Amino acid sequence: KAQAPSVNPVTAFVARARLPTVAMAADDMFADGDDTDEYQAHPLMEEAETATVRHKRLARALAASLALLGGATLANAAFTHSSSLRPRIAAGPLVSAPSDSLRGFQTDNGFGAYGSRPGASANALRAAAAGAGAPGGTDAMQQIATSIQSFPSDGGDPGAGTGGGGFGVTPIDDVNRFGVDGYDNIATPVPDVPAQDCAVPKKGDHCYTSIVWAMTKGIYEHPEWYPHITTKSQFTDFQRHLSTVESARCPPPCPDRPGCMTAKTGSSCANNVQWILSTGLKQHPSWFPGLNADMPFEGFQNHIHKQNSTICPTFACAPQPFKVVSLFCWAVVRSSGYELPLVKAQFAAKAGMFNCDDFAVVSDVDLGLQGVKTLHVHSTVVTGVSVSGTSPNAPLFIEAWRQIQADGRYRQHDWIAKVDPDTVLIPNRLRTQLSQGQQPHNPYPPPYAPSPGAGQWAPNCDKMRQWGKGWGGLWPMMFGSVELISRQALDNYWANEERCKGTYPNWMHMGEDRFMGLCLRMLHADEVFLKQGDGNCGSSNCGDGQFGAYHPRKDIGSWMGCWQQATR
Fold it and tell me: How would you list the strands of the sheet with 549-551, edge to edge?
């Protein structure tokens, strides 16, 4: 074993940074000379075996310093008992795994062959110390970098950075790679992962298609294929998993910037992003130079953050090129007749509306669904005939919609689906069809631009084609078997409900779907035409593989048969 140096560089640094507990732990970790068995599995240690013993110790010290400054795994044993370092790590770790944190120092990133190039190692440590912002770190990094610089290269001049694996990277290159330049008060280094190691998949390529399939079908049909992933996981979570599956041909996702936070659904920032996506780009493209509808949500958040940090206080994390929308589904259920037994069978099978991200039932009595609170209305009985020959149930459903508003859970979801009990809802298809970038072309665009912040809704019946008509009046219409309304559109409706009633004074004699459609159209909400398998409008073949809903199926046998046929 080689004689241990009198001063361990990482010990000197953390001690100067007033982290004595960590300094002692780091010194213990690397006091065993050239014995690398414990860390043999780590790529840095494997590479270090090819260098001299002295450089091997240097590589270890530098690796430890990087891990201690932000890595979460390699130095775990060193800072387990350090209360002084944990807050620094919690505030923004370098990355989540040592292999990722060290990958940024391979070959073209100034590390050379893991310690065979001291000049580059010194530059890297300078940048690491500067980026860490530790107390006393600036002076300490100069001292340590100088001592590292004195180590000779393998076959090169001291500190020249050209021998034994040198790649001619200048100090400023290393600093830029750590993200020090251009950022104020950055707490931890930002690694630069080579392009061949990480990438954002592009729409249409094999990796992107594989991830979208996994998010919209695979995770639901074969959850055992995706360990540690749920239906709530993000695009990058699926990408990280699929990067280990050879057939997916996916690179790993790039690490997030420290301090990032992607806006949550329902926040002011997210609502502004949604307005740009649905309305702003169409009405005011000159306001958003360099932005287009194919960009991910995060790109728009970063744009707003630069323009007005009050609206979006933080920059976004890694882009999520595709997001599966979340659905809140509900139904009014009569306690007598066929509806309650049918809904109970759906609930037991976790099918239809009970396969949505969250759900509610509305009735005039408690329906007895275990764990499901019944939202109450005065009565579910409707008599008479509407102006269009259907049930005049607008008053009932206006009351029911108010119960959904008071319940409040809808606010955590992107789209709200009101369904009839005899509708076979296929949430997985709807999640894909309603997602940004996946919505189908609207063959019946309204003759006006959507109003800012008015949201979207989904007409689903185009019977007017039978008599040679297009958009106009009631058509295309949103039949009540399934009403799909975005959260923004629903909030806009509630804010203007009385205005709608005043515009259509005979609303009490309307069917609820007619009233809701007329109101949303009056408010100039954006329209996404999604034809459904409603027998009252056209075909209702459960095996067609196209529609997100089939109607009517009024008995348990036919309902379950349609569900199984549509989801197999």
Answer: 424-425, 549-551, 533-534
Prediction pTM value = 0.60
Dihedral sign computed on CA atoms, order 121, 108, 39, 244: positive
Distance CA 105, CA 74 (A): 15
Regions of the chain with pLDDT less than 70: 1-196, 278
Question: What confidence score (pLDDT) does residue 289 get?
Answer: 85
With beta carbons less than 8 A apart as the criterion, state whether 64 and 75 touch. Answer: yes
| pLDDT score recorded for residue 293 | 73
* Contact status, residue 22 vs residue 78, Cβ threshold 8 Å: yes
Task: Name the residue type at position 144.
Answer: I
Per-residue pLDDT, 74: 31
DSSP summary character for residue 151: S
pLDDT at 130: 42
Rounded CA gap, 476 and 488, in Å?
Answer: 21
Where on the phi/psi map is residue 168: left (φ > 0), alpha (ψ -120 to 50), or beta? left
SS3 58: helix
Residue 527 β-bridge partners: 457
pLDDT at 271: 82
Rounded distance, CA 471 to CA 469, Å? 7
User: Which candidate, 175, 157, 66, places its Cα nearest to that of 119?
Assistant: 157
Coil vs helix vs strand at 322: coil
Task: State the CB neighbour count (10 A cutoff) for residue 372.
Answer: 15
- Distance between CA atoms of 226 and 245, rounded to whole angstroms? 11
pLDDT of amino acid 468: 85
DSSP, collapsed to helix, strand or coil, labels residue 237 as helix
Q: What angle do CA 82, 87, 92 make, to 5 degrees?
A: 125
DSSP state letter for 293: T
